[in-house]
Design brief:
Blueprint: H1 5-28, E1 35-36, E2 39-40, E3 57-61, E4 67-74, E5 80-88, E6 90-91, E7 100-101, E8 108-110, E9 133-139, E10 147-153, H2 174-180, E11 183-187, H3 192-196, E12 198-201, E13 204-205, H4 208-223, E14 229-239, H5 241-251, E15 261-265, H6 279-287, H7 291-298, H8 303-307, H9 327-332, E16 340-346, H10 351-357, H11 370-383, H12 388-399, H13 408-441, E17 449-454, H14 478-481, H15 497-516, E18 532-536, E19 543-552, E20 557-560, H16 564-574
Parallel strand pairs: 4-8, 10-11, 10-14, 14-15, 15-16, 16-17, 17-19
Antiparallel strand pairs: 1-2, 3-4, 4-5, 5-9, 6-7, 9-11, 12-13, 18-19, 19-20
Helix pairs in contact: 2-15, 13-16
């Protein structure tokens, strides 16, 4: 870790500056919805501000009669577009309760500045509970035809981040809006205890944060046409926890008809001294706690626990009705919303977390004996809280190809694969496989399903302590996949030419998929096959199932049945109600 100390110090200095700016903005706008003459805004803004529909500003009237004002800006590609910041889509009347659609307001809502994120601790500190906002980018042109809509759900581990990090630079939708000539929306929802506390009652029904996202999609269905978007062509695009939320909404009856396509990219009360034997008493106690108490005592960042799978938030059987039953059972029974889907994960998803748990792996010159192998596997399996009856089968499966004295790289790969497979890669792979198989059972199915694995490594990823031997780790591909690397004016030192090339091509893939339900052939002309494909077994004419996956790397390539055996090993744990045999026919 010592070789990274300068990078970490530099990152912390930048982070302190960002947090200071963000905190100052949130403090200045802590009273987001105070009425001033002509509209809503921070209470220290001039009441003499005029809210007119001018070339530099635009006023939109929503379905409920409320009005909102956006501001003209220029994208990186020099295209003009209206940007509506922190537009309120829902509101919460009772802490831990379900949100409701935003009521109409008087005057004009000033959506020309950023408001705070939902309550969270370090590093993106926020204390604002009135936080259910979305951003909208609307390209300017004279075309009357409605544009496709992409709704981006950022990854947060259900703990941190917001749509306006560093002045919306982190989640800047103008890249996609410009590239694809479409409307782009980013959404934030409640986090931690505020978004997922479950007491088995309507006062804390569970999955509140996912219910927030469902409400945002309802808001989009009602209003996006007024911003030039087509409510019949909505694609949700999620990373990490955003992807987990999308998988829940693909199954949820509450989200039926709210989107047509999806892109999924890898997805304690007792400390508060509140009673746990009486649910109403517990909720009463927590509602009386300050935001600071709830965020700093229950929502402190513990990334290893989040990504090791120790802190999971989306539940089934919640009172809100997001997931009425176990997801694997719902899939097995054909309960889902039919949409086009692209899903994917990275080759080294939890490489950084593996090294965090087993720091001795960082030394690339160390030699390991089989005793070391047993010790390291046992340690990581205990950290992952693998059930005792699975420890021996998991060990045998992931060491079956290791020599008695494995090379350093062989052992590293086996351990990274183990952690990544059990927590992110195989849940994504198996969900996609079973969803594709279920769609195929419907003779009238017209939906497409695709899968990719991101293998491309770039030196900038080391800033996130993700090193080459790990493969691309969790979320380090985001700068490439959402267009940062394609921007010639940003971060020129960080990205290689291959990063920029892949980024530009993937932006075209996302936008083509959002428009037509197919990724197209933008990856050097290589046709991207559907995940569930038919192939021929060598030596005879028997048709067998082939699960085809696009590998994002230079050069691009397509693999067949990659990850299948490893993920089928995890199937009894991850999808106990839905055996693979159902889809192998």
């Amino acid at each position: 870790m010592m070789i990274c100390s300068k990078i970490i110090i530099h990152w912390l200095i930048c982070l302190i500056v960002v947090v200071a700016i963000s905190s100052a903005q949130q403090h200045r706008c802590s009273n987001n919805y105070q009425v001033v003459q002509g509209g809503f805004g921070c209470n220290n803004r001039s009441s003499r501000r005029l809210f007119s529909d001018t070339p530099s500003h635009r006023i939109v009237t929503l379905l409920n009669g409320a009005r909102v004002r956006g501001k003209l800006q220029t994208s990186i590609g020099k295209r003009e577009m209206y940007f509506y910041k922190s537009l309120r889509y829902a509101e919460v009347f009772h802490r831990f309760g379900l949100a409701e659609m935003a009521r109409p307001w008087l005057g004009i809502y000033d959506a020309t500045f950023s408001r705070g994120g939902c309550p969270q601790g370090f590093p993106f500190i926020s204390r604002i509970e009135d936080c259910l906002h979305l951003n909208i980018w609307q390209p300017v042109d004279d075309v009357d035809k409605l544009k496709p809509v992409i709704v981006y759900l950022y990854g947060s581990g259900f703990h941190l981040a917001n749509i306006n990090l560093i002045g919306t630079t982190v989640f800047d939708g103008s890249h996609l809006a410009d590239t694809g000539d479409m409307i782009v929306v980013t959404v934030q929802s409640r986090l931690g205890a505020f978004g997922f506390l479950y007491a088995g009652t309507d006062r804390a029904p569970g999955n509140q944060g996912v219910h927030d996202l469902v409400l945002s999609l309802r808001w989009i269905q009602e209003n996006i046409e007024r911003f030039g978007g087509d409510p019949r062509n909505v694609t949700v695009f999620g990373v990490s926890s955003g992807s987990m939320s999308i998988s829940a909404m693909i199954l949820s009856p509450l989200a039926k008809g709210l989107f047509q396509r999806a892109i999924m990219r890898s997805g304690s009360v007792k400390r508060m001294k509140c009673p746990t034997d009486n649910m109403d008493g517990m909720v009463d106690c927590l509602q009386n706690k300050t935001v600071e108490e709830l965020t700093f005592k229950t929502l402190s960042i513990d990334l290893p626990s989040i990504f090791e799978g120790k802190k999971m938030f989306i539940m089934f059987g919640d009172k809100a009705g997001i997931l009425p039953d176990r997801p694997s059972k719902m899939l097995a029974e054909g309960i889902y919303n039919a949409v086009d889907l692209i899903s994917g994960f990275s080759y080294g998803e939890l490489g950084t977390i593996t090294a965090y748990i087993l720091p001795e792996l960082i030394n690339g010159y160390r030699q390991f004996s089989f005793d070391d192998v047993q010790r390291l596997f046992l340690k990581i399996l205990k950290e992952l809280q693998v059930p005792p009856d699975l420890i021996e089968p998991v060990f045998d499966f992931y060491t079956k190809n290791l020599r008695e004295y494995p090379s350093n790289q062989e052992l590293r790969r086996a351990l990274v694969d183990l952690v990544s497979d059990g927590v992110i890669s195989c849940p994504t792979y198996l969900f996609t496989l079973k969803y594709a198989g279920m769609l195929a059972r419907n003779e009238s199915n017209v939906n497409n399903v695709y899968l990719y694995r991101f293998d491309h490594f770039s030196p900038y990823m080391m800033l996130a302590l993700c090193f080459h031997w790990m493969g691309p780790c969790h979320a380090v591909d985001v700068p490439i996949m959402i267009g940062w690397a394609a921007d010639p004016s940003l971060y020129q030192i960080l990205f290689k030419n291959s990063d920029r090339k892949i980024s530009k091509q993937m932006m075209k893939v996302w936008t083509n998929f959002a428009k037509y339900g197919q990724p197209g052939n933008y990856l050097d002309g290589l046709e991207w096959p559907q995940f569930r494909s038919l192939g021929r077994r060598l030596g005879n004419n028997k048709t067998v199932m082939a699960w085809k996956q696009m590998i994002i790397e230079q050069p691009y390539r397509i693999t067949v049945n990659s990850n299948l055996d490893r993920c089928l090993f995890w199937e009894p744990v991850l999808f106990p109600d839905d055996p693979y045999d159902h889809y192998h026919r």
